[in-house]
Amino acid sequence: MKNIDVCLTPDLLHHHNINNSIVVVTDIFRATSCMVTGFAYGVQSIIPVASVEECAEYQKRGYIAAAERNAEKVEGFDLDNSPFSFMDERLVGNKIAMTTTNGTLSITKSKKNAVKVIVGAFLNLQAVVNYLKAQPYDVLVLCAGWKGRPNLEDTLFAGAVVEALRDEYFVAEDAAILAMRAYEASRENMPLYLSNSSHIRRLQRLGINKDITYCLQKDLYDIVPILRGNELVLV
């Protein structure tokens, strides 16, 4: 039987053997929500990079560049980390280079050893679940967290994936059980459940309430971004 597990922060990734695993990277507020939205609105590909300097190099080569640190746009770049920025018509058919505080770092940490790396958000939850059901590999949901620490919103997404797959995968470890139980407790009203979470407070201080509401919507898009080489493309 295939296994499913959860890594609550990329700082714990070295404890997981992912040589036979599809890694599902999630950063609900807001990197993976941006990526899913961008593809839904016609972006051709997204190159996730760990550092601002790498992203700037792509920008010099003519790529549209999105850079975020501490939930705010980095000065000099084209896009911030709001999913609404990724709905812009001028992005259709274009390649984007992207760096964020947590999400793109998680992708770059995963790609060396994972069988595949895909991007998950509540926005494409069912599409991710359907894709995984058709695959022969184990699954690790990697929560991007916040600067090496776990966060609640990514943990809830991980729990939603575990809950959806628990009849077909062996749920072996406590992190997966914890995430699933948290999702089961929150599923009827996630905004209320998350209302005191650290990243919600961080975004609210920046006046980004509409992003919070948007990112917690389920199944708006039937797409799965997957890493091919150094680029995210659609499956």
Your description of this structure?
- The protein has a five-stranded parallel sheet, sandwiched between helices.
- The chain has one domain: ComB-like (putative 2-phosphosulfolactate phosphatase), CATH 3.90.1560.10.
- With 235 residues, the chain is α/β, with parallel strands linked by helices.
- Helices cover 35% and strands 22% of the residues.
- The radius of gyration is 16 Å and the shape is globular.
- The chain has nine helices and eleven strands.
- Helix 4 crosses helix 5 and helix 5 crosses helix 6.
Please give the structural blueprint:
Layout: E1 2-7, E2 21-26, H1 31-40, E3 45-48, H2 52-60, E4 64-69, E5 72-73, E6 95-99, H3 103-110, E7 116-120, H4 125-133, E8 138-143, H5 152-165, E9 169-171, H6 174-186, H7 190-193, H8 198-205, H9 209-215, E10 225-228, E11 231-234
Parallel strand pairs: 1-8, 1-9, 2-7, 2-8, 3-6, 4-6
Antiparallel strand pairs: 4-5, 10-11
Keywords: Hydrolase, Magnesium
Cofactor: Mg(2+)
GO molecular function: 2-phosphosulfolactate phosphatase activity; magnesium ion binding; sulfopyruvate decarboxylase activity
What are the main properties of this structure?
magnesium ion binding, hydrolase, 9 helices, 235 residues, putative 2-phosphosulfolactate phosphatase, Probable 2-phosphosulfolactate phosphatase, 4-stranded mixed sheet, globular, alpha/beta, EC 3.1.3.71, single chain
User: Average pLDDT across residues?
Assistant: 96
**CATH classification class:** Alpha Beta
CATH architecture tag: Alpha-Beta Complex
**Any idea what the shape is?**
globular
Counting DSSP H or I runs of 4 or more residues, the number of helices is 9
Kindly estimate the percentage of residues that lie in beta strands according to DSSP.
Answer: 15-25%
Rounded radius of gyration (Å): 16 Å
Oligomer: single chain
CATH superfamily: ComB-like
In percent, how helical is the residue content? Answer: 25-40%
| Spatial order of strands in the largest sheet | 7-2-8-1-9
Number of strand segments: 11
Q: Which structural class should the secondary elements be placed in?
A: alpha/beta
Ranges where pLDDT stays below 50 over 5 or more residues in a row are none
**N-to-C span:** 24 Å
Q: Strand-and-helix sequence, N→C?
A: EEHEHEEEHEHEHEHHHHEE
Overall number of structural domains: 1
How does the major sheet shape up?
5 strands, parallel
Family: Belongs to the ComB family.
Protein name: Probable 2-phosphosulfolactate phosphatase
Catalytic activity: (2R)-O-phospho-3-sulfolactate + H2O = (2R)-3-sulfolactate + phosphate
EC number: 3.1.3.71
